[in-house]
Amino acid sequence: MTFRIGQGFDVHAFTDGDHVMLGGVRVDHDRGVDAHSDGDVVLHALCDAMLGALALGDIGRHFPPSDARWKDADSRTLLRHCDRLLRERGWRVGNADVTVICERPKVGPHAEAMREGIATDLGIGVDDVSVKATTSERLGFTGRGEGIAAQAVCLLVRS
Ligand SMILES: Nc1ccn([C@@H]2O[C@H](COP(=O)(O)O)[C@@H](O)[C@H]2O)c(=O)n1
Ligand SMILES: C[C@@]1(CO)OP(=O)(O)OP(=O)(O)OC[C@H]1O
């Protein structure tokens, strides 16, 4: 088999705080997110896409919320762990595409920094990583500003 495809989705509720972690980048905001780790929806969705591509389960299986090791964990650590799992099996991410869904914060000004960090962690080119954003036109939980969501797809190729 030459290719594998995976998709991932993650949500975190907003809570009190002054920043959110998105794609490994600290983004100043008037809310934080409720999470066991740093609550980075971009990296969690991407990890799930990578794991899903090889039918390796999900991040809750690999990094259980019941495990104190992942308390306040930097999600870049989780991403690099998932990358190792793929590479041990002879695969790497060919390209990945992530969409963040929220009214605020604005993601666009931070998208390049996210792409660069993700590309570094995955050992691939920045042109192989896409980070985009959309509002949900004020509809639903993201539209009401109750939480933030991200979805990701990735293609795996033989390393
Ligand atoms: N959190 C967000 C949401 C959107 N953007 C950028 O704004 C554009 C327009 O959003 P619509 O939901 O009205 O389509 C979108 O294409 C993004 O470029 C953003 O940066 N951060
Ligand atoms: C990342 C983990 C780590 O314990 O916890 P959370 O930060 O709460 O994030 P979630 O997206 O719910 O994924 C589950 C866990 O693997």
UniProtKB/TrEMBL annotation:
Entry-linked Gene3D superfamilies: 2-C-methyl-D-erythritol 2,4-cyclodiphosphate synthase
MF annotations from Gene Ontology: 2-C-methyl-D-erythritol 2,4-cyclodiphosphate synthase activity
Cofactor: record remark: Binds 1 divalent metal cation per subunit.
Sites where the protein binds a divalent metal cation: 10, 12, 44
EC number: 4.6.1.12
2-C-methyl-D-erythritol 2,4-cyclodiphosphate synthase domain: residues covered: 3-156
Catalytic activity: 4-CDP-2-C-methyl-D-erythritol 2-phosphate = 2-C-methyl-D-erythritol 2,4-cyclic diphosphate + CMP
Entry-linked InterPro entries: MECDP_synthase (IPR003526), MECDP_synthase_CS (IPR020555), MECDP_synthase_sf (IPR036571)
Binding-site list for 4-CDP-2-C-methyl-D-erythritol 2-phosphate: 10-12, 36-37, 58-60, 134-137, 141, 144
Site (Transition state stabilizer): 36, 135
Lineage top rank: taxon: Bacteria
Keyword DNA damage: no
Coiled coil: none
Family from the record: Belongs to the IspF family.
Assembly notes: Homotrimer.
Name of protein: 2-C-methyl-D-erythritol 2,4-cyclodiphosphate synthase
